[in-house]
Design goal:
The relative contact order is 0.12. This protein is an alpha+beta fold. It folds into three domains: 1-55 and 235-381, no CATH class; 63-227, no CATH class; 421-612, no CATH class. The longest helix has 45 residues, at 606-650.
Length: 752
């Protein structure tokens, strides 16, 4: 009997039942999608790193190398499981073409390598160990879609052509946030092409379980071993691999929480709408002797069936949507391990979501338990408060939907902006010149700065030289600080606390370094320079998401420095021009001038540099923004339709009376449009404020873990204040017009 009553009710209220099922499905889909994508990403990365035997500590080095000293150091360390010295032939980007497309504008350091023996393996698309034949090459899989490549096409290095045999997964350099990319060739081809590039070394260590990688890194530096290049550890490798897709997943998770909250509100009003329409039926059942709990049981059973259907639809939708969203993950990292557990946790997320929804429904249904049959049938309940409440919730849901759209939109516009470099530990400039992996970094840097100084197109420039210093903290402990020396006022940062170092004896720390070292503004640090200790005072704390977020800055005239003054690892020259239109010609001229240095000098337009470094991340967040935009507009439409229909049923007696007095349905519908207008506009305004300020706080928490504290949105006003609000406003008005059609279904006798 119960199921027959439920079936008849659903036939009579198809739209309401469908709406409830949709909200349950969307809530379940977003939560399940978050679990599926997170499980897929982390599982894929861990599976790839395990299969490839990724190193725990990597030191890149350009220059002479004493292999015996490295082997002796490894043998003396109880924490070292294995060691290798890999080769990397750095090739000038302008000499490389992939299927006819030049890599001259690439922001990556591209080079050749051969397969390693014991660990750090380069794997194929099926995670198989690769061994290319003579004249063949395996290309990084991240270039496959970027350059539209297929197996069988040609890669050219100068006048040498190699056939692309396939694509490789590099567990250490898959991410575009890793500054280097390895192409795998046969040992014969490596030897043949060695004269066309500059050799570098990848000094890699596997650390035994239970030992501290940071302690090993400090011991390596203290031993004075080769360190002319960046240092990378396994946690940083995992972080770089996870970051681009991880931010998209965080946005989807946030969307899922907001949608669940909206769904609870909407389903509450769906329940209230159903209760309004079925008051007489409920009264009849009570008059026939059924208790309040029995009536509630019938209603709850209906929503339990809808919840089951919604959960199933949500699960299927999550599986379907996750395929295209995880396509890039699968291409970069392969299949995830532990898929069964990911599915189990996804189902658990769906069950939890539906349980929360059903508990909310049960609470709402209890409101009619104590009403008598006469009270229910007579409909003498005062709805005035409910009417006002419904209008307020229209505004609240509109605000939540706008917030849901603006967070990923604003995050995308921020990371896309040239101003985002301020979170990379540098001030905003137009052009960036990197001098790395060469014997005479100081000499090349001075030659370039002399030329730039005399260039009339240059507005201002700044040379920054970076090295590693041994620091002694106030508690007597030692740590190595990656320290940048130069004039930090030329392109100033926005400091979280304090200010930049303006004189000798001042040091600024990145946010993560200040937290790890326990140093605040005003604290003292001793730096070991030229064999003696020099006292420094912390003058400022800044954001930095480069080099693992752990850097420092000291004042100095970088143009007069020598290799004896600072153990140079790299130099960077920042340049701004008087006329922005000169940027392309300027960069091309200086690339030609620096061609004699090979790949040691890399010159980039900051906009291109940002696109090359964060392009994948931006693309993922944009995908999340598009998905949020579509879902939010759908939510606004369905919610407002439901709320307007509820209000019409609550006011059916008044509407019938108006019709009896000769007022037309179209006039009554216009009244609902006018009454909704102020709440929709208010919701839009509140949503924009929340999206800008609260969204900024949430995005800031995401980036703070990477060192980007003090985060501020860089807004695209055309999106944030024009396109998004006006689209949502149009959808909301359309929803009011659609929902108000219910007025026509009420006849003059209804409720009189």
């Amino acid at each position: 009997m119960y199921f027959r009553m439920i079936r008849n009710d659903q036939k009579k209220n198809k739209l309401v039942s469908a709406a409830a099922c949709i909200f349950m499905a969307v809530s379940a889909a977003f939560i399940a999608l978050t679990v599926l994508l997170a499980g897929s990403l982390l599982g894929s990365i861990d599976a790839l790193m395990k299969e490839a035997k990724t190193c725990d500590f990597l030191q890149m080095h350009a220059g002479e190398l004493d292999a015996e000293a490295l082997r002796a150091f490894a043998a003396s360390r109880p924490d070292v499981e294995d060691m290798l010295i890999g080769s990397f032939l750095n090739i000038e980007n302008s000499t490389i073409t992939l299927n006819g497309r030049s890599l001259a504008d690439s922001t990556q350091d591209n080079g050749l390598c051969i397969q390693n023996e014991n660990f750090d393996h380069l794997l194929g698309t099926d995670n198989e160990l690769l061994h290319p034949g003579p004249g063949r090459v395996y290309v990084p899989v991240c270039y496959k879609s970027e350059y539209d490549l297929e197996a069988g096409q040609t890669m050219e290095i100068g006048s040498t052509a190699l056939v692309i045999e396939g694509f490789l997964r590099d567990s250490q350099m898959n991410s575009m946030m890793a500054s280097s990319k390895r192409f795998l060739v046969n040992p014969e081809d490596y030897d043949r092409l060695e004269g066309q590039g500059s050799p570098e070394y990848l000094i890699e260590f596997l650390i035994k379980d239970g030992y501290d990688i940071d302690a090993f890194a400090t011991a390596y530096t203290d031993a004075g071993l080769p360190s002319n290049g960046p240092t990378i550890t396994a946690p940083l490798i995992r972080l770089m691999n996870a970051l681009s897709d991880g931010m998209m997943i965080l946005v989807i998770f946030l969307a899922g929480i907001v949608i669940l909250a909206i769904s609870l509100i909407c389903i509450r009003y769906i329940v209230l709408t159903g209760m309004e329409k079925d008051r007489k039926e409920a009264g009849m059942l009570k008059a026939l002797g059924l208790g309040g709990k029995d009536v509630r049981k019938i209603c709850l059973l209906k929503y339990e069936l809808l919840s089951f259907a919604g959960g199933m639809i949500g699960a299927i939708a999550a599986l379907i949507i996750s395929k295209p969203l995880s396509m890039q993950m699968r291409e970069l990292y392969g299949a995830a391990g532990g898929n069964a557990w990911t599915l189990v946790f996804s189902l658990a997320g769906i069950v939890l979501t539906e349980a929360i929804v059903l508990m909310s429904i049960k609470r709402n249904l209890k409101k009619n338990d104590n009403l008598s049959a006469v009270q229910v049938i007579s409909e003498r309940e005062n709805h005035h408060g409910k009417k006002k409440d419904s209008f307020i919730w229209i505004g609240a849901v509109t605000a939540a939907a706008i917030f849901l759209i603006l967070v990923p939109v604003n995050l995308s516009s921020t990371i896309s902006s040239e101003k985002f470099v301020s979170y990379m530990g540098v001030g905003q400039s137009r052009i960036r010149m990197d001098i790395r992996q060469c014997e005479d970094i100081a000499g090349i840097s001075k030659g370039l700065t002399e030329k730039i100084k005399n260039d009339k197109r240059v507005d201002k420039y700044s040379l920054m030289q970076t090295g590693s210093f041994r620091a002694v903290l106030k508690d007597g402990s030692n740590v190595n600080l990656l320290t940048e020396m130069g004039d930090h006022e030329a392109f100033p940062l926005q400091y979280i606390e304090g200010a930049s170092p303006k004189k000798a004896g001042e040091i600024a720390l990145s946010k993560l370094n200040s937290e790890e070292l326990g140093c605040a503004v005003g604290d003292g640090i001793l730096l070991q320079r030229k064999g003696k200790e020099e006292a420094y005072t912390v003058c400022g704390i800044y954001s930095d998401i480069t080099n693992g977020g752990k850097t420092a800055k000291i004042f100095g005239d970088a143009e007069t420095l020598t290799a004896e003054d600072i153990p140079l690892m790299w130099s960077i020259i920042y340049v701004s021009l008087k006329e922005e239109g000169d940027t392309e010609a300027f960069t091309e001229e200086y690339r030609t001038y620096c061609s004699e240095y090979g790949n040691s000098v890399k010159i980039s337009d900051i906009a291109r540099y940002m696109e090359g470094t964060y392009g994948q991340t931006i693309k993922r967040i944009r995908n999340a923004a598009i998905l949020s935009f579509a879902v939010s507009c759908l939510i606004i439409f369905i919610v407002i339709v439901l709320f307007v229909r509820l209000m019409i049923w609550q006011e059916k007696s008044d509407i019938s009376l108006k019709k009896a007095l000769g007022i037309s349905s179209s006039h009554i519908r216009r009244e609902y449009l006018k009454r909704s207008f102020i709440y929709i506009v208010g919701g839009l305004a509140l949503g924009i404020l929340l999206g800008v300020f609260l969204g900024q706080q949430i995005a800031g928490m995401m980036l703070a873990s990477l060192g980007a504290a003090g985060f501020r949105f860089i807004l695209d006003w055309r999106l944030a204040f024009v396109l998004v609000p006006f689209t949502a406003f149009a959808v909301a008005l359309l929803a009011v017009r659609t929902g108000s059609r219910e007025v026509a279904s009420l006849n003059i006798r209804c409720g009189v």
